[in-house]
Structures are given as C-alpha cells and as structure tokens.
Write a structure and sequence with these properties.
disordered N terminus; mainly alpha
C-alpha cells in the first residue's frame, strides 16, 4: 500500500516509504554520477562563462570602471561570477533530463515501483555536485585574480551557502525547462539567455544606479541582484548602493522569490513527469 501511495503522489507517506524513497534516491543519484564521471568536461562547461566574465570584465576593466560607492571593482565582480555558476547549471540539467525523456528512460523508470520524485531529485542532487565543483574552480580563479573576503569564516561560508541554495533552485528550473520544452534543440536555444542576460540585468557587473531608468527597476528587483548583494555583504566586498526595497531588504527578496520559484518548478515538473510518455 505504501508503494502504491508513493507512485500516486511521488512522495512517501510512511516511515517505510521514506526509507525506500531514500534508497531509490541514492541508487538513481549514483547512476547519474557515473554518467557525469565519464564527462568531466561538464565542470569546465559550468565554470567557463563565470571565468570569462571575471577575466574579461572584472580583471581587464577593473581600473576603467568606478563604483558609485567606491571599492575594488575586481572584488565587486566576483559575486556576480559566482552567481553565474548557478545560472550555468540550468542548461546542462535541462538537456540531460530531456535526453532521458526522449531516450525512453522515463518509461523504464515508470514501470518500476519507485517514487516519481526520486528520479528528478537524483538529477538535481548529482548536478549539484557538478555545480559545487564549478564553484570551487571559479573561487580559485577569483583568488588568483585578487578577490579576497574581509569577514569571518562563518560569514564567508554563509555567502557560499547562498550560492549553493541558488544553484539548487536553478537546477529545478532546468528540470522545469526539460519537462515543458522537451526538445533538446529548443532548450539549447533558450537556456544561454539565462547565463548571459540575467547577470547583465542585475548588479553582477554594474551598479543599478548607473543603468538607464528603464532597466534600473529590473536590475533592482532581479532576485539575482538580491543574492549578489547578500554575498557581497557577507564577504565584506564593495556593494551597489540602492534605496529601493530590494536593495535594503535583499534577504526578504531571496526568501520569497526562491521559495516561490522552487515550489513552482517542483510542482509543475513532477506533474509533467507523471504524465510523460502516457
């Protein structure tokens, strides 16, 4: 009866069901990690865009761009590059889930007595490891280029924790793209805009105060800007000045937007997964 409930809802409803779901989750995650082990280039792919941004923008133009509140521009840019790691995870996850859908793997999983959510959670947990490795690469490059935190270790870890949280939510956005778009070619067309456009319409590389009046509200209310602002504050790096509500209360923006986005992505993705191939 427990397994039947898990198949209907995608979530366990009893202690035994929870234990079974965890075993299923670890097993499917292990399968996904074996695939990723044979494709180590995924880590470099996730880190490439942030590295290019940090070098081309943060390092080459660090003396040419002046921040309204002052401070080192290279340190200002690092938080934006770190956030790009999270955004760069959307595309690969969307493609891998879509390929499983197109390759019939979903149909095979649907025929097994496993919870529906375990398959999608396994994708996100395995790809989160790739994102963490990419973040390590970007952080190492940032240190080489001159980035330094100026706060205590707990604050530094809290800042990276926000990046990890954002990364996991973005992975579920990738799952949502796969379940709604379905086609790998279509996914490859749209997901690069997330990595390229969102950071530039935020406080990642420029202060919203220096942007045109039409773009400024978008940059200020962009949840990416809230994560970046919180990270800069936790790391003691130069920050963008803003009197707007998001600028003064980035924690509230992070809590609301990421919670809503995760709930939306998870609910819609799981519902689509239940009906995939039927």
């Amino acid at each position: 009866m427990t397994n039947a409930t898990a198949l209907d809802t995608g979530l366990p409803s009893a202690p035994g069901g929870l234990r079974s779901a965890l075993i299923e989750l670890f097993a499917i995650t292990g399968r996904r990690l074996l695939h990723l082990r044979r494709a180590p280039g995924r880590v470099l792919g996730v880190a490439m865009s942030p590295l290019v941004s940090m070098v081309m923008v943060g390092y080459l133009f660090r003396d040419a761009i002046t921040l309204p509140a002052g401070g080192d521009y290279g340190e200002y840019v690092f938080a934006g590059g770190a956030v790009q790691v999270a955004l760069a995870c959307v595309g690969p996850t969307a493609v891998s889930v879509a390929m499983d859908l197109q390759g019939g793997l979903v149909d095979r999983f649907r025929s097994l007595p496993i919870s529906r959510s375990a398959v999608l959670f396994a994708h996100t947990f395995a790809d989160l490891l790739v994102g963490l490795l990419g973040l390590v690469v970007v952080t190492g490059a940032g240190l080489v280029l001159g980035w330094r935190p100026h706060t205590d270790a707990l604050s530094v870890l809290a800042g990276f924790g926000l990046i990890v949280l954002l990364t996991y939510v973005m992975l579920w956005l990738g799952v949502l793209f796969a379940m709604t778009l379905g086609n790998v070619e279509t996914i490859n067309v749209w997901t690069p805009f997330i990595v390229i456009v969102l950071p530039f319409v935020s406080s990642a590389f420029l202060s919203p105060a220096s942007m045109p009046s039409l773009v400024r509200p978008l940059a200020e209310w962009n949840p990416i800007s809230a994560v970046i602002a919180s990270c800069r504050d936790l790391w003691g790096n130069p920050a963008a000045t803003s009197d707007s509500f998001p600028g003064q209360h980035p924690g509230v923006v992070i809590a609301v937007t990421l919670s809503v986005l995760f709930a939306l992505c998870f609910t819609v993705s799981l519902r689509r997964y239940r009906t995939a191939g039927s």
